[in-house]
Specification:
This protein is mainly alpha-helical and 173 residues long. Helix content is 76%, strand content 0%. The chain contains 8 helices and no strands. It is elongated.
Length: 173
């Protein structure tokens, strides 16, 4: 009757896969727009508007340049989606069991909020390293063109901290 039992490992895995598909694929699909947005934030004199940003990027890097940062975007947001969707269900059940059935029902909005915030805490930790690499690739000309180039360079320059400097702003949003 059901694809899996509620609260089973398969249930959590399916929720996680749903997160990978809904976050990883959608964020990767809008990489060109994100690339131009990031460049507009870093260099507003050069990238004056969305349309101008697309035009400058295509002139300088070709159409393929619009895909810069696709790999860390896909990996990072897939990991975020996996954690966000999967851990939300874990925390919802965990907190619900701690409250008891009646209190979980009465306080369900607060329960869902707490489960969501808890899941997002871990999801942002999973996202941060790839988001840091993506931003370097997209906004620092000549720094790196691929994830394989960016990660070792970032680690050599700043150590592990390079990948987690942005986690607090992620939590704040």
């Amino acid at each position: 009757e059901y694809s899996c039992e509620y609260g089973s490992l398969k249930f959590y895995a399916l929720c996680g896969v749903g997160g990978v598909l809904s976050c990883g694929l959608t964020h990767t699909a809008v990489v060109p727009l994100d690339l131009v947005k990031c460049r507009m934030q870093v260099d507003p004199q050069k990238y004056k508007s969305i349309f101008n940003g697309f035009s400058v990027t295509v002139k300088e890097d070709g159409v393929r340049g619009l895909a810069k940062g696709w790999a860390p975007t896909f990996i990072g947001y897939s990991m975020q989606g996996l954690c966000k969707f999967g851990f939300y269900e874990v925390f919802k059940i965990l907190y619900g069991n701690m409250l008891g059935e009646e209190n979980a029902y009465m306080w369900r909005t607060s329960l869902y909020l707490a489960a969501s915030a808890s899941a997002e805490f871990f999801a942002d930790i999973a996202l941060a390293p790839m988001e840091a690499a993506k931003v370097r690739i997209q906004t620092q000309p000549g720094y790196a063109n691929t994830l394989r180039q960016a990660v070792p360079k970032m680690f050599a320059e700043e150590g592990i901290w390079a990948f987690y400097k942005g986690v607090a702003p992620l939590w704040m949003r």
